[in-house]
Amino acid sequence: MEKKQTRGIILCAFLFLILCLGVGGCHNKRQVKQSQTMKKEKQAAQKKSKAKPYDLTIPAKEEKTYEKECIEVMKSCSDLYRDCDVKNPDDTVLADEQLTKMAKQIAKSKAPVYLYNGNIDMINYQSLEQFIQSVEKNNNAIIHIYELVQNGGMNRTTYCNKDGKLVSTMVCLAWDANNKPYVTYVNRCEVKSIEYTKKGWLMVENAVNENCSEVVDGSFIIRVKPVKKEYRKAYNKYIAPIGYQGNNLFRVNWDKGSMKRIAFNDLYDFTYPLVHGKSLDATNQKSRIKQKEFEQVILPYFAISAESLRELAHYDPKKKEYKWGRIGFGNQIPDIFYEASSEVVGIKENKDHTKSLTVDVVTEGDDIAFTHIVTIEDKENGGWNYVGNRLVGVKEQDLPNYIPRTKK
User: Fold this and answer.
1) How many helices (H) and strands (E) does the chain have?
2) Which residues make beta-bridge pairs with 358?
3) Residue 209: helix, strand or coil by DSSP?
4) pTM of the predicted model, to two decimals?
């Protein structure tokens, strides 16, 4: 009897021990599971806290969809691109007429489309205006904007405004040697600010890596509203080829009696395409340019003799060469002209058969940073002379000082 009691006690103790171990095991498993869950949540929180506003994560499925959509849009231009007979996709500049045909093809999607150089009015600009209105009202909205670049490639920027947060997703594409489009770059970032001016300029500032050793500017300006055809034609012909970066033709006051103020040597890059119909290949260009080559590029656009040009520009009479310097990081200073654009807002015919173009310069955050008046003298052969430039509403000393890249 005692043995049976002893066995019963031992059995109960054994069962109690198993029960305790079982409960403890379940409790430990719950602890492990909870610990793993907390760890995942912590990692997710850390990942979120480390999210870079200039390089946001794009879900893989969404990124793949974006890339596929862009490739299909660009494929719609395949025949038009093939007609351009491009030999080297990486080193070509298509004419505005060719790019415009491609832009019109893409515009069939009803999305806004424009050229990189702004030489045509934005197609379907009304869609962008509607999107901006939605953003201003803090409504959720999304839009795709297409930009055609000089070699026929395409950039699509998608702006998505959701719950008061505006995000930009850019997909860049190019053509390969077999005339097939492929994706070269994808990025998503936060939009720090967006403004649509009364004159019709869209000004956007994207988040950038401020710790980068190189100068990175996330700001850009796009003309949205159409421009008068007469003004756009004048801008494309006289102003756009010269611009404001890399030379000082439109940045200082000068006339026929003060041409010494012009940095003629720095203008070579800009008048070269007007004469030769293609951009200067600066990589193979030496720091000195033969007299004949330099003068045939500069003289057609100024009422000045070759002898006077040699006195005003850095000319070596012994070697019969002009000095020249390539545009690079060492002589490119990020100032208000770095991303500046402009527009002709008035044309006046003068009694001396010249005409004066009133030009508003547009910079980051200001669609009339300053105005200048360019005097032009048209020639019978279709060419023209730049006769003078006058700053209006601003003193020359208040603008960033231009430092010539070609020096004695």
Assistant:
1) 9, 14
2) 346, 373
3) coil
4) 0.81
